[in-house]
Amino acid sequence: MRRGRGRGGGGGGGRHPKAPPSSAAVDRTPMSDAFSIQRNLDHAFSRRDSDAYSICSSRPSSIGTAQAASHAGGPITSLSDRGSQVAALRAVNTYLAPAAIHLRPSLPPAKDIVAAFHHLADRLRYPLKPAAWEDDLLALLRSLCCPYKLTRSALKAPGTPHSWPPLLSVLYWLTLLCRFTDGLDASPPASASNDLMTYITESYHLFLTGEDDAVASLDDEYHTKARTQIGEWVAAIQELEKELQDLEAKRSKQMSAPSRLKALEDKKDAFTADVQKFEAVVKSWSTKIKEKEEALVEVEKELEAKVMNCQQTMAENGELVKQVETQVVNVRDVDRMAREMQAVENDIAKLENANAVLEEKGWELEAALVSKLEEIEGLAELCNQSLRKLKPSIDFQYEVNAKGSSPAEILGTTYKTTLKPALNALANETKRLIISKHDESIDLQKQLQGIVKMLEEKRSHVSVLQAKNNEMQCLIEEVSI
């Protein structure tokens, strides 16, 4: 039976209000009440701030659950050992990355630490004054009931080794708090929808004014909207169930994956191989150092021989000077000899300059050769790492011969006959796998098209049933009238 039949037709009926409502009271709804909305928003924000404060103050020691949780991606409990400090610094750098702030491992500069504190305080809506940022930071930590104690001397000299651990603890704690507040800002608390209240208010307003047709139209509109929302919720629930099944499959797959012990053993084997390679490099460099020492001994011997030759030359020059002094010469011969000596001295100076230039070029060429050889060794190591990742069917490693004089002698020629066929075979196998995966994707697309066609048929069937349902409801309403 329709609601308008019992209202006396004119909206009065037997249920008269105690006092006629004013036009402002009738037109005022919960959605249009600005004062009520502002009060509710203030209450919501104050409740969220109090929740964050209660979490920071009532559970100061619940930053983490265990040391193992830090390795699994969870919060860290203690920052006493180096591993926990490295993990905490990594978490802080990850949060500060969008702000282009990076704290260098071991001991970051003081300006970066101060910039990190300013950024975290800004994220907490508590900007620090540049002139007295230490006092503002200590006041902020006291208001948030920070579990870590921080002294003013540590803030005055943030770049010293003894003040870095407590500063890192406070930075990590503020990072966790900022992540928590960012999560609250990103996902505001769900509030009850006001659609029902709006519907009731408008329906009551139309009832008071006696507009029964408008009431029936409003009822139909709200019922249609409710059915649509129910359908959307059902679809969302189905999607969530599907996502739950996918997550269960992923969890079972992860449970069946190799254990952490095996992964650590693989890492240990890799580290052992790296240590062996490092020992081989040290051994090779020790051999090179011995060769350089032997070459240095030979150079010292050559230097001694040159010094002795120079002393002998000086003695001969002294004897020649004495002979010249004892000889009787005229002024013309003296001038000629002076000119010849000046020319000889100029030639000697030119030869010395040319010798110095040649020595400098020799040192530059030697340094360039050493740098190029190091670059070749680095590239060979990168190629070996790439080969280990590709896992070809052969065991091939590039080996650099530092004593070679040509590319063939430095790198060898075995890679042309050994490595290229293996890489070609690996490329062919990869192409074959890509083609097979492409065929599988085509089959899956065909299955998906069949499923979509089936869903369309079901939707059309549901639409037919819905039309029949609407016809039955109309018949029921006509019968009730």
UniProtKB/TrEMBL annotation:
One of the protein's GO biological processes: attachment of mitotic spindle microtubules to kinetochore
Coiled coil: 230-309, 334-368
Keywords: Cell cycle, Cell division, Centromere, Chromosome, Coiled coil, Kinetochore, Mitosis, Nucleus
Tree of life domain: Eukaryota
A GO cellular-component term linked to this record: Ndc80 complex
Subcellular location: Chromosome, Centromere, Kinetochore; Nucleus
Disordered: annotated segments: 1-30
Pfam families: Ndc80_HEC (PF03801)
UniProt signal peptide: none
Keyword Cell cycle listed: yes
Kinetochore protein Ndc80 CH domain span: 63-181
Protein's UniProt keywords contain Signal: no
Entry function: Acts as a component of the essential kinetochore-associated NDC80 complex, which is required for chromosome segregation and spindle checkpoint activity.
PANTHER family registered for this protein in UniProt: KINETOCHORE PROTEIN NDC80, KINETOCHORE PROTEIN NDC80 HOMOLOG
Family: Belongs to the NDC80/HEC1 family.
Quaternary organization: Component of the NDC80 complex.
Protein name according to UniProt: Kinetochore protein NDC80
UniProt organism field: Triticum turgidum subsp. durum (Durum wheat)
